[in-house]
Recover the amino acids of this structure.
């Protein structure tokens, strides 16, 4: 018996030792750049049924680091969550493990712009460490301080002052241990250099001192990696990129270019010969940061250099397509959209410079091609996820300008606007304006306040708001007014990033009056719509059969949001009105909602819509009065399962048209989800929406639609009618009418009945307009919360 117990103990001890050795080898492989080998050994270890719980936890945490190194944030968080499920609630012996989980979640929150949450998680982790009886046992304590320091970079001035103190503590903790691989020290120096680079702006006191600190930290991290982990090309290339960025901020563009090219050369074989997708993000980021150099002189006037850079960007389009497809998930289509890696903005900006120098129209073609390709790529990814490969689109034609003009009506125009961030170097806006016989390709400075002109909270400053719209008018519209004024009645607008938040028809030419009716808003001149593709799909313009109408009414509830009694009453009237259809007032879950939408010609759908802007989350809509009740909520990605999407959608809810603006292929929203699922047209709100003003506006809109007007003209006429009827200057603020937009096609509705007044249908139309966000406050009652 004794011998049996001894043998069992020896086997168990041997197994633990073997597991520990496997984890050590996997960590070493990760640090040395063999993340694939590390991943294989960890997955094999996790597949073993008898592995001890602590070892399983360590394996998941190390797997999370592999995903973090690859910039695969969704997998990083998933692996961290898998590790967390192995822990008890607050077991004292697992305090360090919980602190490590919270630290990882802090890092993910910072990446996803959840800055407040990142700080909360980081401070919770460090509180656990401070309560530890023996802090010397905490092997990963350095990472807690490292993560918290990074989170403090974007915080209050008091916390910003603590950033470098936390980094110093992290370095002191890691230097006190001999069992930590050098890779982890290099990661601290890299994080420290990023924080120092934030403070290199000329407006920051002692900016030169921070520049010196940034340089020293970057070079020290690189020396550690080259000396101890020379085969880790991915991390070394990223450090070279960062040093190049430092040099351009420091006024040394030639040195920057040499470091960026050194980075590209280091991973060139991995990208182009081995087709190793792990290196694609680093390659694309290197290419993107070259734009910081080409923005300044003498590079921006060097035609040969610009042509060479444009050729690089065009070659990288296929890399981005492959990377986006590899990373694609249904959720991912409605979060960040990989905007920072896309070569689109750099391509368009480079084409603009070459056009300004040469006036060669092939650069117009190339800019339009890059734009259309980014949108078709996103469309194709969505169709693959839907299981509808037959709907995939080919790459756009080379002669984009000629193709567009063949399809454009003489009274139609196109305006493409793209914000182009260049860090501390500066931010620009690229605008490309086309009519049937003219073109303008311009660049102007970008003011970040522009994108939020309609989101100014109460109490607002009307004069400031008018100045913001006036400056937008002068920057974006005035330079091309001679091409559009009195010639273009229907203007299609496409935009990316922050410019997706703009309501172009609210731009005003005159700010001398307190009443916007006297300021000549752009809606007086143009009917504006927001298509998804530059080249419209075949069949656009054919009437939309709206006779099969569906009305999905929200349910009652006792949550934190406004109960929608008036909406339910209105829908009870609508379904028997001028656009008759089936009323479904029993929708309580996403499955029922999607089933109700299938095959509809015309869908009226509303409720609360909101979510967490600047977070790695999709927007969310609720059929009831709570965003936390998962049984009554729906996400955009869930709409992708629709086989026959409703042809025409009215989604009356706050931010249903634009939620997260950072998309290389259009802003992220429920409107985008409906278009991906096959809808032709979506009428939705671009911002939060006021109840009373929206009722009046939508009454006019539906009357126009019933009379056979296409949606863009109908909305233009409705807005002008609203402004004519407004009784006060407050009523005329763009906040109350410019949020409503048309996405997709602008084909008229075919009802099969003679036109009738639709005021009963609309009497509650805007009552649907409800916002999930608490930040919006008005002087009148709204459907916010």
């Amino acid at each position: 018996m004794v011998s049996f117990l001894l043998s069992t103990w020896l086997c168990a001890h041997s197994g633990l030792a073997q597991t520990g050795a496997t984890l050590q080898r996997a960590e070493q492989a990760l640090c040395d750049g063999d993340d694939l080998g590390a991943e294989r050994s960890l997955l094999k270890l996790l597949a073993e049924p008898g592995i001890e719980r602590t070892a399983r936890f360590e394996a998941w945490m190390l797997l999370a680091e592999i995903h973090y190194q690859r910039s695969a944030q969704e997998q990083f968080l998933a692996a961290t969550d898998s590790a967390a499920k192995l822990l008890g609630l607050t077991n004292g012996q697992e305090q360090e493990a919980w602190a490590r989980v919270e630290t990882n979640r802090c890092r993910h929150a910072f990446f996803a712009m959840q800055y407040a949450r990142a700080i909360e998680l980081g401070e919770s982790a460090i509180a656990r460490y401070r309560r530890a009886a023996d802090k010397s046992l905490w092997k990963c304590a350095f990472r807690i301080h490292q993560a918290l320091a990074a989170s403090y970079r974007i915080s209050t001035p008091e916390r910003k002052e603590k950033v470098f103190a936390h980094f110093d503590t992290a370095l002191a903790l890691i230097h006190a241990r001999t069992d930590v691989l050098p890779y982890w020290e290099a990661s601290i120096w890299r994080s420290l250099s990023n924080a120092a680079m934030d403070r290199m702006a000329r407006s920051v006191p002692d900016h030169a001192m921070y520049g010196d600190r940034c340089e020293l930290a970057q070079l020290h991290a690189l020396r550690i990696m080259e000396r101890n982990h020379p085969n880790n090309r991915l991390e070394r290339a990223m450090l070279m990129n960062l040093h190049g960025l430092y040099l351009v901020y420091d006024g040394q563009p030639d040195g920057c270019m040499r470091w960026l090219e050194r980075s590209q050369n280091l991973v060139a074989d991995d990208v182009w010969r081995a087709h190793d997708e792990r290196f694609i993000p680093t390659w694309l980021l290197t290419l993107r940061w070259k734009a910081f150099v080409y923005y300044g002189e003498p590079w921006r006037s060097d035609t040969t250099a610009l042509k060479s850079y444009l050729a690089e960007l065009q070659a990288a389009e296929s890399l981005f397509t492959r990377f986006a497809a590899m990373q694609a998930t249904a959720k991912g289509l409605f979060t960040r959209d990989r905007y920072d890696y896309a070569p689109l903005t750099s391509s368009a900006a480079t084409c603009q410079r070459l056009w300004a120098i040469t006036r060669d129209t092939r650069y117009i073609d190339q800019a339009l091609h890059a734009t259309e390709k980014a949108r078709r790529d996103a469309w194709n990814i969505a169709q693959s996820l839907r299981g509808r490969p037959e709907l995939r689109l080919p790459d756009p034609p080379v002669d984009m300008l000629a193709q567009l003009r063949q399809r454009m009506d003489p009274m139609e125009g196109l305006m493409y606007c793209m914000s182009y961030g260049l860090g501390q170097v500066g931010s620009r806006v690229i605008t490309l304006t086309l009519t049937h016989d003219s073109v303008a390709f311009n660049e102007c400075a970008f003011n970040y306040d522009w994108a939020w002109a309609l989101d100014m909270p109460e109490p607002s400053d009307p004069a400031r708001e008018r100045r913001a719209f006036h400056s937008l008018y002068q920057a974006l519209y005035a330079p091309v007014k001679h091409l559009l004024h009195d010639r273009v009645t229907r203007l299609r607008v496409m935009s990316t990033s922050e410019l997706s938040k703009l309501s172009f028809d609210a731009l005003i030419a005159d700010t001398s009056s307190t009443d916007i009716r006297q300021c000549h808003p752009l809606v007086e001149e143009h009917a504006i719509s927001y298509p998804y593709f530059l080249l419209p799909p075949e069949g656009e313009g054919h009437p939309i059969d709206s006779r099969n109408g569906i009305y999905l009414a929200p349910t009652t509830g006792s949550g934190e949001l406004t109960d929608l009694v008036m909406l339910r009453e209105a829908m009870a009237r609508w379904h028997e009105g001028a656009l008759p259809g089936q009323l479904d007032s029993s929708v309580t879950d996403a499955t029922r909602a999607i089933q109700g939408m299938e095959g509809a010609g015309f869908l009226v759908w509303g409720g609360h819509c909101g979510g967490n802007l600047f977070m790695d989350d999709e927007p969310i809509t609720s059929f009831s009065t709570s965003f936390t009740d998962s049984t009554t909520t729906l996400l955009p990605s869930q709409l992708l399962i629709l086989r026959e999407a409703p042809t025409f959608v009215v989604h009356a809810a706050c931010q249903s048209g634009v939620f997260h603006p950072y998309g290389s292929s259009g802003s992220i929203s429920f409107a985008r989800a409906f278009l991906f699922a096959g809808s032709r047209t979506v009428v939705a709100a671009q911002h939060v929406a006021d109840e009373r003003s929206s009722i009046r506006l939508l009454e006019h809109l539906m009357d126009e639609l019933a009379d056979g007007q296409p949606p863009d003209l109908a909305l233009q006429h409705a807005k002008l009618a609203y402004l004519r009827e407004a009784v006060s200057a407050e009523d005329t603020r763009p906040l109350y009418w410019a949020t409503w937009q048309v996405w997709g096609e602008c084909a008229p509705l075919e009802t099969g009945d003679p036109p009738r007044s639709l005021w009963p249908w609309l009497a509650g139309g805007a009552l649907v307009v409800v916002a999930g966000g608490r930040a919006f406050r008005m002087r009148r009652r709204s459907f916010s919360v």
Q: What stands out?
A: The two ends are 70 Å apart (CA to CA).
